[in-house]
């Protein structure tokens, strides 16, 4: 099946998200109340953990905030969207990368939507990510609506039947209909023997890196987040190629697109 997919019609993507504020206490009272109401079960679960059972309630809520404050679209925001597009050449393939990153979420969303509307706006185009159907694409859609922006046609899937949605998801492809477990991108790269560059941060560090640099320079933190996000896109594309039986890209075939 995958070998029949037109790879040039696919936009590979990954997003990085952080909480809208650096600390739980930075939210106004109403937002704190709504966050605690939505995440009461997570709080109860963490409070039963031996590490937290004797700690003050405020400290436990800070821990909950740190764990999921950035992955819920109502309380988080996107700080980077990295994309990759593969071009077929006479000698093989080329991967070109581009990132939309900014401290103002609306700015980067507008830039990303311009790309979708200009180049990925037909029924033959698709997006691909790892767990993108469950996380990246819904998160982008929700943040677009919250920012008062229209959804580009390629992600405006409300009301469509599952077989009418062309998006691809490497996690879903790996499950083969088995929905019992989550398999990370890094684990799949490991089992497929796909080399991945080491980074100075992990996904759990993104919010810390972003906000620790706030007082000094947003750009330094954002640059690190962008670099991390782009490496995930490279790993995603390599995994997709391996899944469909293609050769992996070498470093000379990977390009950073001009801004």
Distance between the termini: 34 Å
Q: Main beta sheet: strand number and arrangement?
A: 6 strands, mixed
Query: What is the CATH architecture term?
Result: 2-Layer Sandwich
Strand element count: 6
What's the helix-strand series? Answer: EHHHEEHEHEHHHHE
Annotation keywords:
single chain; 259 residues; alpha/beta; Nucleotidyltransferase, domain 5; 6-stranded mixed sheet; 9 helices; 41% helix; 17% strand; globular
Structure description:
Helix 2 crosses helix 3. The chain is α/β, with parallel strands linked by helices and 259 residues long. The protein is built from nine helices and six strands. Helix 5 (132-146) links the parallel strand 4 and strand 5 (168-169). The chain has one domain: Nucleotidyltransferase, domain 5. The chain starts with 9 loop residues before the first strand and ends with a strand.
List the helices and strands and how they pair.
Layout: E1 10-19, H1 29-38, H2 40-47, H3 57-68, E2 76-89, E3 92-101, H4 105-119, E4 126-129, H5 132-146, E5 168-169, H6 170-175, H7 185-191, H8 206-212, H9 218-243, E6 254-256
Parallel strand pairs: 1-4, 3-6, 4-5
Antiparallel strand pairs: 1-2, 2-3
Helix pairs in contact: 2-3, 7-9, 8-9
In short:
By secondary structure, the protein is α/β, with parallel strands linked by helices. It has one domain: Ribonuclease H-like superfamily/Ribonuclease H (Nucleotidyltransferase, domain 5, 2-Layer Sandwich), CATH 3.30.420.10.
